[in-house]
C-alpha cells in the first residue's frame, strides 16, 4: 500500500476500466482536483489524488534550479511513484493509468513521466511543463512508447512560459509520446471546457478490460 495519504472517488479500483491519478496544484487540495476527475471521468473510471504537504509539492517556481526545490521535489516524485506502485500491486497495469495534473501538479506529473517513462494510458499536463531552469539538459532515458499526452496552456500564463510548454512537447515527442499541444490565447491560469473534453476523450479511449484482466484483478 502507498505510504502517502490519498483521496479517491469514482469506481472501485478493482472494477475500474482505468485509473486517473490526479495531481493538484500549489495551494490546492486533493478534493479540488477530484472535482475535475468527476468532470472528465465515467462511472468505470477510478480517481486517486494524493495530498501535498501544506498544499505544495515543492516550495519555489518550477523554473528554479532543481537543487532549490530539494528535497521536496524528490519526495513529491516519490509520492507519485508510490501511488503508481500501489495501483500496480492491485492489478492495474500502467497502460490503464492516466496521470492528470494542473499547474504545479501538471509540472510534477510531466516530470515524473519523463524520469520514469513507460507506456501509460495517458498523461494530461494542464498549465504546466517539465521542471527545471532554462537550458536544462533534458537527457531523460527510456521511451514513453506512444503514450498519448495532452498539453494545454495559455499563451500568456503568468506562471508557465509558453516556451516551456513548447520545449516539453518537443522533449516528450522525442521520448516517443504522441503529444497533442493546445495553446489558448489570452486564457487565465485555469482549466477550460476544451481541455476537459480532451482529457475525457483520452480516458474514453482506454478499452474495456478483458475477462482475463478482470479475473487477475
Brief characterization of the structure:
The protein is of the alpha/beta class and 217 residues long. It is 33% helix and 19% strand.
Helix content: 25-40%
- Main sheet summary: 7 strands, mixed
Please state roughly what percent of the residues sit in beta strands, choosing from under 5%, 5-15%, 15-25%, 25-35%, 35-45% or over 45%.
15-25%
Counting DSSP H or I runs of 4 or more residues, the number of helices is 6
Taking the alpha carbons of the first and last residues, their distance comes to 15 Å
Low-confidence stretches: none
Coarse shape: globular
- Shape-level CATH architecture: 3-Layer(aba) Sandwich
Calculate the mean pLDDT score and round it.
94
Strand order of the largest sheet: 1-3-2-4-5-6-7
Radius of gyration: 16 Å
Name of the CATH first level: Alpha Beta
Briefly note the structural class of the backbone: alpha/beta
User: What are the secondary-structure elements, in order, as H or E?
Assistant: EEHEHEHEEHEHH
CATH superfamily: Alpha/Beta hydrolase fold, catalytic domain
Q: Can you tell me the number of structural domains? A: 1
The name of the CATH topology is Rossmann fold
Report the count of strand segments.
7
Question: Which descriptors would you attach to this protein?
Answer:
alpha/beta, 6 helices, 217 residues, 7-stranded mixed beta sheet, Rossmann fold, globular, single chain, 33% helix
